Amino acid sequence: MRQDPAVRMAGLVFDALREASLDPPGVSRASYGPGERAAHAILRTAAEEIGLEVETDPVGTLSMTLPGQNRDWPPVVIGSHLDAVPHGGNYDGAAGVVMGVALAARLRRDGRMLPRDLVVLGIRAEEMCWFPMLYLGSRAAFGLLPPEAPDTLRRTDSGRTLAEHMQEEGFDPDFIRQGRASLDPRLIHAFLEPHIEQGPVLVEAGLPAAVVTGIRGSLRHRACRARGAWAHAGAVPRGGRRDAVLAVAALAQALEAFWREAEQGGRDLVLTMGEFWTDPAMHGPTKVPGEVAFSLDIRSEDPQVLQQVESLLRDEAARIEVERGVAIDYGAPLPVPPAAMDARLRAALRHGAEAAGVPVLEMASGAGHDALTFAGLGVPTAMLFIRNAGGSHNPEEAMDMADFAAALDVLAAAIGEIAA
């Protein structure tokens, strides 16, 4: 069967992205760096070749517009980010931008003109590993960053400021310092972010795509500590120990028990202790550990569940202090509220899947996305996941072009209802 020209074009763009940012064993596209710059140039060229109107704002957001019938109506916006983590995969973020351009190519080829403009965005700097700021690029475009951000945020690999990197790429940090914006949420009809799934749910379900119900909110504690007392491993009996490792293990068991109960009750929750370590200057095989540092990452679509976990953390800290003589300090929390996806847009995507004959799942997104920025500003927002084997943020990302084509069929069948 002859491949759809839009899908063939998308495959060539993915190949070009990989070649331009290859950093074995994966790809690296640093925010406001050479890899991201190359990715934006590749998408600009692809957009210009199919006749889209292309422009870049002062913070580097790439806008590629397919004109609609009523150009003064708020547009439908499709997009995602084009940066990538160090030695990561080729599809995280980029799949959403490429799909937007592929959709525009198909609409143009089929002679379909939407009632309003279709704008495809290539957003900057979504990956927090480069600059310590959530959704930096989309927040910058909406004028949401603190005015001091260009001068206080430093890129983790270079140590240089955001302002220095922006100027090096030809952009204007004063745009952020002055609180200016290139995007206005009141002037966006809807925002759609196609994205690879970053877990195994679609692979295990045997389905090519999913309509996202919402983006999990999170409660993160990056700098937790349990403090007990260092002691001799052979000389102190169990009752006399203030063992920090066993204290945090007890906390982990309590959290997992709550998680299991939440799952059995049909509530959405994931819990992770991503870091767990004793001080190498102090620990040893013959010492009772007196201090443990750890991290907590708690995510749920349900704000009540997040509140319940927060209460559990307080109660468990108090219990452990009494039972084990170990004090637990969770440090300052980093809360991010959940974002429900727009019901009308979700319905339109389901209708599109039915019309295209593509079976889809409905599921939550465990990871955060630029869609959170749009939804948080009141823009009707939806996400479409594409099956992806091998996980994400690693070189093993393995989105199949047949699944990309199926998701594109869903979007093409839904876009008329979305733009109406």
UniProtKB/TrEMBL annotation:
<keyword id="KW-0464">Manganese</keyword>
<dbReference type="InterPro" id="IPR010158">
    <property type="entry name" value="Amidase_Cbmase"/>
</dbReference>
<keyword id="KW-0479">Metal-binding</keyword>
<dbReference type="InterPro" id="IPR002933">
    <property type="entry name" value="Peptidase_M20"/>
</dbReference>
<protein>
    <submittedName>
        <fullName>Zn-dependent hydrolase</fullName>
    </submittedName>
</protein>
<comment type="subunit">
    <text>Homodimer.</text>
</comment>
<dbReference type="InterPro" id="IPR036264">
    <property type="entry name" value="Bact_exopeptidase_dim_dom"/>
</dbReference>
<keyword id="KW-0378">Hydrolase</keyword>
<dbReference type="Pfam" id="PF01546">
    <property type="entry name" value="Peptidase_M20"/>
</dbReference>
<comment type="similarity">
    <text>Belongs to the peptidase M20 family.</text>
</comment>
<dbReference type="GO" id="GO:0016787">
    <property type="term" value="F:hydrolase activity"/>
</dbReference>
